């Protein structure tokens, strides 16, 4: 791989997977939809950057970046209100990254020639890149753990607590016949009939309220 690309790959892919892990283990719903989109978008852009750097670093076509990016993009699309990506997309994420890893390195011959012509310079460069890689991984890990802790602290523990937080965060939810109340009830009935697994998460009232509010906002914006 070309010098410098390994560090970019480490940072980008790690941030993308960290965001995916937060979403998977701590489903969104405690923040407004706007923040959900920003966080998911940041993770996706970081992942794209990491996969792109890896593919280019191996001397391959940038189009191959889609192999590693598409599964994560499908998974992160779950933050879109009313859209539920297939469960198997979680398995596709490591498979896509594995395919990128198995790609041949077209720069290997070029690097061997450069190494033979300037051994000392390349040794220093490798040591520098190795140190930067360690720093990048540690920084990304700290950021991921901090984000996980933040979401964990703000998520409701019981369904009753989630209901209380939903009404506090979205007051219109407690107003009978309000647009948000009607949207919430409609989504609740639809999910009860089509996706009962949705309610296995204790925080579903808060999550459903956030999705309902986003749908109401979109409807009002179109008028």
From TrEMBL:
The chain crosses the membrane at residues 12-28, 34-56, 63-84, 90-109, 130-151. Keywords: Membrane, Transmembrane, Transmembrane helix. The keyword Transmembrane helix applies. This is DUF308 domain-containing protein. It comes from Chthoniobacter flavus Ellin428. The lineage of its organism: Bacteria, Pseudomonadati, Verrucomicrobiota, Spartobacteria, Chthoniobacterales.
């Amino acid at each position: 791989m070309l010098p410098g690309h390994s560090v970019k790959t480490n940072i980008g892919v790690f941030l993308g997977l960290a965001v995916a892990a937060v979403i998977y283990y701590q489903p969104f719903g405690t923040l407004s939809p706007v923040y959900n989109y920003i966080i998911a978008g940041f993770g996706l852009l970081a992942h794209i950057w990491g996969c792109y750097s890896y593919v280019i670093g191996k001397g391959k076509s940038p189009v191959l970046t889609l192999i590693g990016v598409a599964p994560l993009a499908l998974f992160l699309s779950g933050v879109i209100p009313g859209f539920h990506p297939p469960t198997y997309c979680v398995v596709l994420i490591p498979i896509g990254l594995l395919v990128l890893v198995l790609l041949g390195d077209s720069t290997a011959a070029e690097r061997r020639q450069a190494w033979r012509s300037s051994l000392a310079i390349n040794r220093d460069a490798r040591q520098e890149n190795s140190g930067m890689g360690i720093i990048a991984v540690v920084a990304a890990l700290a950021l991921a753990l901090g984000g996980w802790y933040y979401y964990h602290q703000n998520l409701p523990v019981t369904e009753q607590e989630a209901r209380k937080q939903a009404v506090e965060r979205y007051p219109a939810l407690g107003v009978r016949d309000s647009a948000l109340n009607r949207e919430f009830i409609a989504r609740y009935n639809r999910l009860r009939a089509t996706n009962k697994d949705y309610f296995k998460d204790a925080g579903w009232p808060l999550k459903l309220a956030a999705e309902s509010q986003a749908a109401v906002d979109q409807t009002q914006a179109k008028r």
